[in-house]
């Protein structure tokens, strides 16, 4: 016969299991992240290492941390016309506090605006999976592109840019990846796949479509063995810095109920007269 005390003990055990985590252990006067006392990390671990530590169980090398930090730096901002940044600024002029402005902006970092890095890394991973199954790498690139186009359409995430003929961020990131490969800190597999995708797109279209920031960060995150969904999360961590900066700047500038364009510009009415 189960006693009242036994039921209470079972309920307490079930309650403790409700949230199960290997990330952090908090007790009175003690905070440990992945087994490391927080006071040993404060003042010793940089932000990139904390991101790695929270997401991974392995210990990064200095070269790996440098690559991660470079990718986080590269994507912080792309100007007030970037939809997420514009949304944050407009939200502030509507009276929203910083947290609401940031949340409004982050909420649009989805499949179209913000998801390209994840999608591109999935494409790279598909290429490598096909190569592991026996296809020559260039053939694997074309097979993966065919499959992606059939499933999602002709726009290939991570390549081409509406504003930059050549994205300066991707050039720098790829150079850093090459340095990491020479130092033995990366395999270069994802960098090679990215270059081959770029070449394949030029063969197919007759036009060079250079890798952009999303394609380059996908290379970095692939080389660092991050899962594709984390590419989007890491991008959001990075872009949140720009979102905060623009929201705060707009708060200092003031303004009231600013829309996406000055009222004098107007818009196009396409209905019946």
From TrEMBL:
GO function terms (MF aspect): citrate synthase activity
Keyword Transferase: yes
GO cellular component entries: cytosol
Enzyme class, broadest EC rank: transferase
Keyword terms: Transferase
Gene3D superfamilies: Citrate Synthase, domain 1, Cytochrome P450-Terp, domain 2
EC assignment: 2.3.3.16
Pfam families, A to Z: Citrate_synt
Pathway membership, UniProt: Carbohydrate metabolism; tricarboxylic acid cycle; isocitrate from oxaloacetate: step 1/2
CDD domains xref list: CCL_ACL-C (cd06100)
Signal peptide as annotated in the record: none
InterPro entries: Citrate_synth-like_lrg_a-sub (IPR016142), Citrate_synth-like_sm_a-sub (IPR016143), Citrate_synthase (IPR002020), Citrate_synthase_sf (IPR036969)
Protein name, per record: citrate synthase (unknown stereospecificity)
Organism: Paraburkholderia caballeronis
């Amino acid at each position: 016969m189960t006693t009242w005390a036994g039921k209470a003990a079972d309920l307490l055990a079930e309650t403790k299991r409700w949230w199960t985590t290997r990330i952090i252990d908090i007790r009175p006067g003690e905070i440990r992240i992945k087994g490391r006392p927080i006071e040993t990390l404060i003042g010793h671990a940089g932000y990139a290492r904390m991101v790695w530590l929270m997401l991974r169980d392995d210990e990064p090398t200095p070269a790996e941390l440098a690559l991660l930090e470079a990718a986080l730096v590269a994507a912080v901002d792309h100007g007030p016309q970037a939809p997420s940044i514009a949304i944050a600024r407009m939200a502030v002029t509507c009276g929203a506090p910083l947290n609401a402005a940031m949340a409004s902006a982050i909420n649009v970092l989805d499949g179209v605006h913000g998801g390209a890095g994840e999608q591109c890394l999935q494409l790279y991973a598909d290429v490598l999976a096909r190569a592991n199954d026996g296809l020559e790498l260039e053939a694997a690139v074309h097979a993966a592109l065919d499959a992606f186009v059939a499933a999602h359409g002709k726009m290939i995430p991570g390549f081409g840019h509406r504003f930059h003929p050549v994205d300066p961020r991707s050039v720098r990131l790829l150079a850093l990846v090459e340095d990491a490969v020479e130092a033995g800190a990366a395999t270069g597999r994802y960098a090679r796949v990215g270059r081959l995708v770029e070449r394949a797109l030029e063969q197919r279209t007759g036009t060079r479509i250079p890798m952009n920031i999303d394609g380059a960060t996908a290379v970095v995150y692939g080389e660092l063995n991050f899962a594709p969904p984390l590419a989007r999360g890491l991008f959001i961590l990075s872009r949140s810095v720009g979102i905060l900066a623009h929201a705060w700047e707009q708060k200092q500038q003031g303004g009231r109920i600013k829309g996406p364009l000055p009222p004098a510009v107007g818009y196009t009415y396409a209905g019946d007269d």
